[in-house]
C-alpha cells in the first residue's frame, strides 16, 4: 500500500461544523470528547467516537494520538498579500499613503531573481504554522510571482487560490502592466495552474484605482472565458480611496457599480473590506452573490473603519474572514477573530467562540464555494487539519483552570490564541513540513 493510500487516524477531541451557529445554535457543531478522524487517500473516511471506529481500522493503520488536544478542520484565510510579508508593521499611514510609501516599494522587489520564491516559501510556512491550510492570495504584478507561489503550493499539496495582480495605472512604472499584457499573462497562468492538483486561480485586478477601463474590460473577458476562476479585488476600504475611484469612473452608480459594470460581481467574487457601503451596494452584492471579505486587523491598523457584519447578514450578503497581511498584523486566524470580536463589540454585538471558529472553517469554505471540498470533517472532504492546544501558553493554562464548559474554553482560545496554540497541521492527511510543533 502506498503512503498516499495508507489509512491514518488522528485521535483527540474533534470539533467541526455542519451549519452556522448564528442561526442553528448548538446544532451547528459536532464535538467528540474522545474522537477518531480516519483519513484514507488524503480524504476524510470517518469522524466519530474512537471506541466505535478503532475496531474498523485495518491492520497496520497509522494511529497518531493527539489527546487531549483539539482537532479541527484547517483554517481558511480569504484575503492575503504574498508580496507584503515584509510590509507588515509599517508605521503611521492610512491606505493610499501606505500603498505608496511601503507596499509599492516592496512589491517592486518581486522582479529580483529568487525573491518571489523566497516570499512564497515564507508565506506558506507561516500559514501552515498558524493552522491555515487554504488562502486566497494576491501575488504581485509580475507573472513569475504567481508562478512561484503556485509551484510552491503545488509542491506542498496545499489548496490555494491565487492570482497575478493586474494594475496599469496609479502605481510606479515598474509595477504596472497593460490591459493586454495583464490579460495575456493571467490567461497563461490560468492555463498552467487553475485546477492543477489543488490550485485554483483568481483573476485579480487590484482595485478600480489601479486599473483603467481597458484593464477592467480585459478582466471581464477573462471572467467570461474562465467562469470557474475566482475574482478578487478591493472595495470601500478608505474614504479617500472611494473618492478617487469615483473620480476615475464617474459614470458608475457607486464603487460597487464599477465592478458591476464590468461583470466582476458574481458568486466567485471576493471583495476585500466593504466598510463604507451604501444601501445600493449591499443590494448589488446580495443580488450577484458577491462575497464581502472582513479583514479585522487590517481595518483597525490602517484606521479604515469598522465592518458591519450584522448589516451584511441582514442584506443576505456572504461574509468571509481574512488576515489581509501586510495591512493586517497577524497570520493567525485565531488572532484575527479576536479582533473581529472587538469590532463587533464596538457595534453592540457579541461574537461567540462557536461563531468565530465556524467563520474560519466551514463559514469561509461556504463563502468561497468550496464546502464540498474543505472546511469540515464530513466524509469525502479533503483532510486538511489543525491540532490545537488551548492551554499552550502559561496565561491560557492559568485561565482555563476556571473554565466551566467547552464554550468558555473555546472563547479563551479565540480571544488569547495564536500560532503558539498550533501543535500540528496536516495537509491531505500528511503532516505539513515547515510548521511549528510542540
Structure description:
This protein is of the alpha/beta class. The chain is 37% helix and 23% strand. It contains 16 helices and 16 strands. Strands 5, 6, 7, 8, 9, 10, 11, 12 and 13 form a nine-stranded parallel sheet that branches. A seven-stranded mixed sheet has the order 3-2-1-4-14-15-16. Helix 4 packs across helix 5, helix 13 (333-345) crosses helix 16 and helix 14 (353-367) crosses helix 16 (406-416). It is globular, with a radius of gyration of 21 Å. The model has no long low-confidence stretch (mean pLDDT 95).
Kindly state the number of beta strands.
Answer: 16
What kind of sheet is the major sheet? 9 strands, parallel
What structural category do the secondary elements indicate?
alpha/beta
User: Nearest-angstrom radius of gyration?
Assistant: 21 Å
pLDDT averaged residue by residue? 95
Throw out a few tags for this protein.
single chain, 438 residues, alpha/beta, 9-stranded parallel β-sheet, 7-stranded mixed β-sheet, 16 helices
Describe the SSE topology.
Blueprint lengths: L6 E11 L3 H4 L4 E12 L2 E7 H4 L8 E12 L1 E7 L13 H13 L7 H15 L2 E7 L4 H14 L3 E4 L1 E2 L12 H15 L5 E7 L7 H13 L4 E6 L3 H10 L6 H7 L7 E5 L5 H10 L2 E4 L1 H6 L7 H7 L2 E4 L11 H13 L7 H15 L17 E4 L5 H7 L5 H11 L5 E6 L2 E2 L7
Parallel strand pairs: 1-4, 5-6, 6-7, 7-9, 8-9, 9-10, 10-11, 11-12, 12-13
Antiparallel strand pairs: 1-2, 2-3, 4-14, 14-15, 15-16
